[in-house]
Specification:
The complex is a heterodimer of chains A (418) and B (1091). With 418 residues, chain A is of the alpha+beta class. Helices cover 17% and strands 41% of the residues of chain A. Chain A has seven helices and 23 strands. A nine-stranded mixed β-sheet of chain A has the order 11-13-9-8-23-21-16-19-18, with no helix packed on it. A five-stranded antiparallel β-sheet of chain A has the order 2-1-5-4-3. A four-stranded antiparallel β-sheet of chain A has the order 14-15-20-17, with no helix packed on it. Helices cover 54% and strands 9% of the residues of chain B. In chain B, the strands form three sheets. In chain B, strands 1, 11, 12, 13, 14, 15 and 16 form a seven-stranded antiparallel β-sheet that branches. In chain B, strands 2-3-4-8-6 form a five-stranded antiparallel β-sheet, with no helix packed on it. In chain B, strands 7-5-9-10 form a four-stranded antiparallel β-sheet, with no helix packed on it. Classes of the chains: A alpha+beta (418), B alpha+beta (1091).
Chain lengths: 418, 1091
């Protein structure tokens, strides 16, 4: 299975290596660097590479490459999924997954990696189990530790690994018992030049923050579970109960976790919250171009659209942009050719508009295709698919928990072709 | 303190301060020297001192910095002696860090590493399971060959540990030891064999991993654990699931026959799978394929894992279905795979690769999701190309126009590599779908005027290929390309144009020589590939039009003769000899025309994923399209399934000889094997209370042991004695075992009168003693065993038939039938879901902690409607007649409606027009009308469906049936039984619900039954003919239970019938709707009274 792990920053420096079997020289990464060079964009590096003696499987997360070395046949997704789990764990422990944070906490990182894999086979990947063994750093503890010589390795040995429900530790106690659920839906859409929707999908996720004492057994039911025909669950959800009754029944992990994700495919009708009127044109003669974008509300279910943002990857020939925005402000990054228009709240009475001219490089043929617009937006208190949680019941414990559900709709990969 | 500067690790400065205070004068001098010599060597000296100090915090600090060094890939091996001393430290964190160090450097410092071994050996005996486990983990990770025997011993001990966590660790250690010393294989296999029997979900994944690494070919070890693994699968941790699923895929390919029968025959048999009638498999070709129940078990138990959050698990299940499931079931994985596309970029890449392979063979699977493969400009290039590949694979006549419109957008993409790939994709679509070839070709020709060179070049290359497949008149396109020739600079494109000119020079007789003339001018400046094609063109023109081009050709050949490139010189020489007639080559030049201008087969435009299906999906090899080290070929289905009884799990396995593989390997150590098995059973007994989900295999074992208790004393002695004695008598005990089992079954159902049945069977067959007699006889003389062995299965089969009249038994392998009980349906005509949901429910109950409310599932009735009622007679209806019946399907329009099908027939001599439903009464009546029928020809009839909400009353629904001219008042009066929907529930639920509906809600009557109705089938038939209810599987033979819900208000209706001794029976109906109860009671009474 997984033989070694190298963590590489965007400059190509290997700043962390870990071997679970005998040591493999870091020169193996040269093959990777070669591929990295060829790909130009780090996103384009093929995730699976072959070298004369090894196979390299890598992921790119937060400007870091996690590169694992494999010697024999293994399902590539197995490795990829694990590497992402490693990155998630770092994120969970340190708040972010970046070079500086990993270098600062190298000991904890090493201890984590040691526990997560044994001989290349995943051992403990559940965040709750790991946190019992290795405590996440915080300022207070590091101060206390330096004074008392204490450590961040748990004194008690983890019990979670042994139980039937490895995701929850025993003996959890809170003074305020609360359970919050965030239903977040992202719209992935491709909208045509003429404004017709080419494809639209909804990717939904229910994130939970559960701080309940003891061993609560929760049941969540929906007003319209029929919407959910393609779902994936946290292991805690009893699948058979879902199959028969369409309710989520589970003993929650302690703290933050993703309860379920669901996918509403393009076969269903998906509401598109905004429409975009745009015209981008480039003129051969004056080596300039014109841009005019207007955004208006379409199907917002009476809610306001917030955090509206338009991002355009301009063609290479565009040197500068001289625009006026009726609302919000725009920036144009000359080096990355990225035009970002930050609008903010969408006012249906006065539609935001961005117009002006683009100056082009002379002597270069005009780009054939107009750049597509990527839209970011957020609508509070609305799940665009219409999903609603009808009730949440708790069994197994006596106290009354505080419960809350929040809905947010965001734009995922929302693209307008021009 | 200036020394602090040289430390770059956190807390380094502090440590140095402390070190300075603590250390002896010599050390402070080294500390002072630090600023000057900041070499690694010095730094490590410092660390050494810290490690040797007495202060725990200092040691910890030092270890942390050492780990930092290791992480950066710097060497810290010279500190080994200082570090290894701390291996026995009390501080857990320090100890862990020392372990990290030890595992990293032990290989280099083997002798010193040995110092630590005794610590681990001691820790292996620690009462705390975690300390034992971690000691084993580190001990096995130290790659020092000398300690192999110690490791072996430790693994063996740990494999028998009480803690499943330690056993899991030992499974991991097996792989480590194997990679250190492959000679230990045999011993390790023994441990694996033992661990495979483990019932803990914690162990299962790890041991299968060890199995895959050490002895993947020992498939025989799996047989006995197959069902257990299938049943445990859902509860195993996610990484283990992946490994187990891929192992089981391979296993299933060797053990079951192919479910992919030939086309038409296969479709006919669909009903067989659905009805779950898992009969005994027959090997003859003519017989329809019936899936092995174990095969079905695997498919059924992996399906829920498609909902896993772990993408690797989903992919593993998808490939399992792809490789094992009947073709029509594979498509259930589609949705989940499409869901994965929203995941990380890397996951997308792998999933798309697999979908690309799948979509070549099975377009239909992904076609509904075609929009999910549309490309976004933000996708990475390799994702884009893969999506393109899939879109091309999915293209067919119906969707090609949408796909081409998409492609048009892609062609304009700024990502030129992707645009070029799109053009190739268009080319492929054009060749695959003949309808659009011309459209594509025209589109590509338009692209020729594109400003981008790569796009133009790619278009030319693709057009060239397309023209080749379409050797009709395309002179225009060739002319157009000739015109473009001057502007095209990409060599490949130029070469392609030249080749086209040459190939079709007769179609463009005027242009081709001109092109050649231009080429003659620029020949020396061209790329090699263009030069070669120029030579080619010259030769072809010379053959067809030598008058005009003779001189040009000679000129070009001369230029080529002195070219720098030897390929071109060679080609020139060859062509010259071929086409220019001279004395030497007379014979060949005659055929020059046929050689050069032979009709050439068109190049196939095929998917790059065409040949990837030779690799198992989801594997590394598939992803790389080459065989990775350690890849195991997925075996092809066996023509004839190996004996399936090998998977039967019993305390003593019956007839082991029939399993050749097992027999070979296990015979010598069978004694041990059995004693193990006995232990296993005991262990399991204690386990079962602890672990929540109990699987069917273990329950069958339990029932085995139960039967042992139930049976008479001497037979118990027999089995227990023989278990320990020689294998000969074991066999006999196995038979007595199965006999006991049989008896147990008959005990459960007292009506079946086991003894007489057994007797009559033995009479019929003329076979020796059965039952008790056989077991005792075989006990006394183990010699007689060979006889009884061959005999006993037959009577057993007979009783089986008696017990379950529905299960047809027809071959000699019926031994395994005993164990098929778990999977074969109850001997009733109850719908399949009832059986399924029952098992699901029981599983569920095992899993959950809280009390779960009963599950009531509405099902469609399996009982087809028989009664048709007259709605309108053709005499009163002026030729229009109408009949209706209740299809007993859930109504499509509204759940509270009853579905009614009306058959309208025109028996008049003229066409009836505009048949529709007019006024309704009562007005509140909610009817979903059928759409107006515009015209009904004379003699024709049409079936329409309507929905009527009767609100759970038998009040007739009156409405008018109108034609263009007339209106007829009609009414539908539903029978009370039609206001119900069949539902399924378990027996316990039934009793529970019945308990709630007592008193007012209960109506009962003693009825007399016509004798013909006394059998269970007859009862079912009668009840189902009256009311749309579902049968509840019943364990008591004299009880029949049925459950339903009213359509409108969803009130439960429970019908139970208890047969008494005489021809009488007690019929009870429980429901809130007391009016309905009495009416239903009346109806049922009538039905039973009829003969």
């Amino acid at each position: 299975m997984i033989h070694s792990l190298f963590v590489i920053n965007h400059l190509g420096d290997i700043f962390l290596e870990k071997h679970w079997k005998s040591v493999i020289s870091r020169s193996v990464c040269d093959y990777f660097f070669e591929a990295r060079e060829k790909a130009v964009d780090p996103e384009n590096v093929p995730p699976v590479l072959q070298t004369p003696h090894h196979y390299l499987i890598s992921i790119y997360r937060g400007k870091l490459f996690f590169l694992s070395v494999i010697q024999t046949e293994v399902p590539p997704l197995f490795v990829i999924e694990f590497l992402h789990r490693v990155a998630d764990t770092f994120q969970d422990y340190f708040g972010e997954c970046s070079e500086s944070v990993i270098s600062d906490n190298v000991v904890i990182v090493y201890e984590l990696l040691e526990e997560m894999l044994d001989n290349g086979f995943p051992l403990a990947t559940e965040s709750n189990v790991l946190k019992e063994m290795i405590r996440p750093p915080n300022i207070l503890r590091s101060v206390v530790n330096t004074l008392t010589g204490g450590s961040n390795v748990g004194e008690t040995l983890p019990q979670g690994q042994l139980s039937n429900i490895p995701w929850r530790r025993a003996g959890v106690k809170y003074t305020n018992n609360e359970a919050y659920f965030d239903v977040t839906e992202e719209i992935d859409a491709i909208v045509d030049k003429s404004g017709t929707t080419v494809s639209a999908e909804i990717q939904g996720v229910i994130e939970a923050c559960v701080k309940l004492s003891g061993m609560p057994d929760l049941t969540m039911s929906f007003m319209n579970p029929r919407l959910l025909d393609d779902v994936s669950f946290h292991p805690c959800v009893r699948f058979r109960r879902w199959e028969s009754e369409r309710v989520l029944s589970f003993i929650p992990p302690d703290g933050n976790f993703t309860l379920m994700t669901y996918h509403i495919s393009s076969q269903n009708l998906v509401a598109i919250p905004v429409y975009v009127k745009q015209s981008i044109s480039f003129f051969e003669a004056g080596s300039c171009g014109r841009l005019d974008i207007t955004i208006g509300p379409k199907q917002t279910m009476g809610k306001t659209v917030e955090d509206l943002k338009v991002t355009v990857h301009m063609p290479k020939a565009v040197l500068n942009a001289n625009l006026t925005a009726s609302q919000g402000n725009y920036t144009y990054d000359f080096t990355t050719k990225l035009l970002v228009w930050d609008i903010g709240k969408l006012n249906p009475q006065k539609l935001p508009n961005l117009r002006g001219s683009l100056s082009m490089q002379t002597g270069v043929p005009n780009p054939e295709e107009n750049p597509s617009l990527n839209i970011d937006l957020k609508i509070q208190q609305l799940a665009i698919s219409g999903l609603k949680v009808s009730r949440l019941d708790m069994y197994g414990e006596m106290y009354k928990p505080f419960k809350g559900v929040k809905y947010v709709t965001k734009a995922g990969k929302f693209q307008v072709r021009t | 303190m200036s020394t602090g500067v040289s430390y770059n690790d956190q807390g380094g400065a502090e440590a140095a301060v402390e070190a300075g205070q603590e250390s002896t004068p010599t050390s402070s001098s080294t500390g002072a020297a630090f600023g000057l010599f900041s070499a690694d060597f010095k730094k490590n000296e410092d660390l050494k001192e810290m490690l040797e100090s007495n202060k725990e915090s200092l040691k910890l600090e030092a270890m942390k910095r050492i780990v930092g060094l290791i992480a950066k890939g710097k060497s810290a091996s010279e500190l080994f002696p200082a570090v290894v001393k701390n291996v026995a430290s009390k501080n857990i964190e320090l100890k862990k860090l020392v372990y990290v160090y030890l595992v990293r450097y032990a290989e280099k410092q083997q002798d010193l590493a040995l110092l630590s071994i005794s610590t681990f050996q001691r820790a292996l005996k620690d009462p705390n399971q975690f300390i034992r486990a971690s000691a084993l983990r580190v001990l096995s990770s130290i790659r020092v060959p000398i300690i192999v025997p110690i490791m072996m011993l430790a693994i063996k001990e740990a494999a028998a540990d009480l803690s499943p966590y330690v056993r899991k660790t030992s499974a991991h250690a097996i792989q480590k030891l194997y990679s250190l010393d492959p000679d230990q294989k045999e011993q390790l296999i023994e441990v694996i064999e033992k661990l495979l029997k483990d019932k803990s979900t914690l162990v299962a994944g790890s041991v299968v991993m060890a199995f895959e690494e050490v002895c993947p070919d020992r498939i025989d070890l799996i047989h006995k654990n197959y069902r257990k693994l299938c049943n445990l699968l859902v509860d195993v941790e996610e990484w283990g699931q992946v490994v187990i699923i891929s192992m089981l895929t391979r296993y299933a390919r060797t053990q079951f026959t192919s479910p992919w029968t030939e086309g038409a025959e296969f479709d006919e048999n669909k009903a067989f799978y659905d009805s779950d009638s898992e009969e005994k498999k027959d090997q003859t070709e003519a017989k329809p394929y019936i899936m092995d129940p174990d095969h079905r078990l695997l498919l059924r138990n992996t399906k829920p894992l498609l909902q896993s959050r772990n993408t690797a698990v989903v992919m593993a299940v998808a490939q399992l279905y792809w490789h094992l499931a009947p073709k029509h079931e594979v498509s259930i994985v589609t949705k989940s795979l499409v869901r994965l596309l929203r995941s990380h970029r890397e996951v997308q890449y792998i999933v798309l690769q697999n979908i690309a392979t799948m979509s070549i063979q099975r377009k239909g699977m992904f076609e509904p999701f075609i929009k999910s493969f549309y490309v976004r400009s933000t996708d990475a290039t390799h994702i884009k190309t893969l999506k393109l590949e899939i879109l091309t694979n999915l293209a067919n006549e119906a969707n090609i126009s949408t796909i081409l419109r998409e492609f048009q957008t892609y062609v304009k993409s700024q990502d030129k590599a992707f645009a070029a790939a799109t053009i190739q994709a268009i080319g492929r679509c054009a060749t695959n779908i003949s309808e659009v070839t011309d459209t594509c070709l025209n589109g590509l020709v338009l692209l020729l005027s594109n400003r981008d060179e790569t796009v133009v070049a790619e278009s030319i290359v693709v057009i060239k290929k397309l023209l080749q497949t379409q050797p009709t008149q395309h002179g225009d396109i060739i002319k157009h390309m000739a015109k473009l020739f001057d502007n095209v600079t990409v060599p490949m494109a130029r070469a392609s144009i030249l080749w086209l000119m040459g190939e079709y020079c007769e179609k463009v007789p005027k242009i081709a020589p001109d092109v050649l003339r231009k080429m003659a001018k620029t020949f020396t400046a061209e790329e090699d590939i263009v030069k070669l094609q120029t030579v080619n063109l010259a030769a072809k023109l010379y053959l067809t039009n030598s008058k005009q081009t003779k001189l040009l050709t000679q000129y070009i050949l001369n230029l080529g003769k002195y070219d720098q490139n030897y390929d071109i010189r060679d080609r020139t020489r060859f062509i010259r000899q071929l086409i220019v007639p001279n004395e030497k080559s007379g014979a060949l030049s005659k055929y020059a025309r046929r050689i050069l201008l032979a009709p050439k087969p068109a190049p196939g435009l095929e998917s790059a994923f065409k040949d990837r299906d030779r690799y198992q999906l989801g594997t590394l090899s598939h992803s790389l399209n080459l065989k990775a080290t350690g890849y195991q070929e997925l075996p092809d289905w066996p023509a004839v399934a190996p004996d399936q009884s090998v998977r039967n799990v019993e305390i003593v396995e019956p007839l082991r000889e029939s399993a050749p593989i097992v027999g070979k390997t296990k015979q010598p150590k069978s004694d041990k094997f059995y004693s193990d098995d006995e232990d296993e059973k005991e262990e399991e007994g204690s386990d079962s209370s602890g672990s929540g989900s109990e699987d069917s295999s273990s329950s069958s074992e339990e029932s085995g042991s139960e039967s042992e208790e139930e049976s008479s004393e001497d037979s118990e002695k027999t089995s227990s004695d023989s278990g320990k004695s020689s294998s000969g008598s074991e066999k006999s005990s196995s038979e007595s075992e199965s006999d006991q089992k049989k008896k147990k079954k008959t005990k459960k159902a007292p009506q079946k009168k086991s003894k007489p049945a057994g007797d009559s069977d033995s009479d019929e067959n003329g076979n020796g003693p059965v039952g008790q007699a056989s077991s005792s006889s075989s006990e006394s003389s183990s010699d007689s065993e060979s006889d009884s062995e061959s005999d006993s299965p037959a009577p057993k089969k007979k009783t089986e038939e008696k017990a379950k009249p529905k299960v047809a038994v027809n071959s000699k392998k019926e031994v395994s039938l005993l164990d098929l009980d778990d999977f074969s349906p109850a001997p009733t005509n109850a719908p399949k879901p009832s059986v399924l949901s029952q098992s699901l429910l029981s599983d569920l109950e095992g899993l959950s902690l809280s009390n779960i409310s009963s599950t009531v599932q509405v099902t469609t009735s399996s009982f087809g409607p028989l009664k048709t009622y007259e709605l309108l007679h053709h005499m009163t209806g002026k030729g229009l007649s109408a009949k209706y019946h209740f299809p007993r399907q859930p109504c499509l329009y509204q759940p509270s409606m009853v579905a009614v099908q009306v058959i309208l027939t025109n028996s008049s001599d003229h066409a009836l027009e505009e048949i529709h439903i007019g006024d309704q009464s009562p007005a509140s009546l909610n009817i979903h009308c059928f759409n107006t029928i515009e015209r009904l020809e004379p003699g024709a009839s049409v079936t329409v469906s309507m929905g009527i909400d009767f609100s759970d009353s038998t009040q007739a629904a009156n409405f008018q049936l109108c034609t263009k001219e007339d209106q007829f008042s009609v009414s539908i009066q539903p029978a009370v039984g039609e206001l119900l929907m069949a539902s399924t529930m378990t027996e316990q639920d039934f009793c529970k619900e019945q308990g709630k509906l007592q008193g007012m809600n209960e109506a009962s009557a003693t009825i007399t039954m016509a004798t013909a109705n006394a059998s269970r089938q007859a009862i079912n038939k009668q009840v189902l003919s009256v009311a749309n209810v579902g049968e509840v599987p019943s364990s008591q033979n004299n009880f029949s239970r049925f459950a339903g819900q009213t359509v409108s208000s969803r009130a439960l209706v429970l019908v139970s019938l208890e047969l008494s001794e005489s021809s009488g029976a007690l019929l009870t109906i429980n429901t809130e709707k007391s009016v309905m109860a009495s009416m239903l009671l009346q109806d049922l009474k009538q039905a039973f009274a009829q003969a």
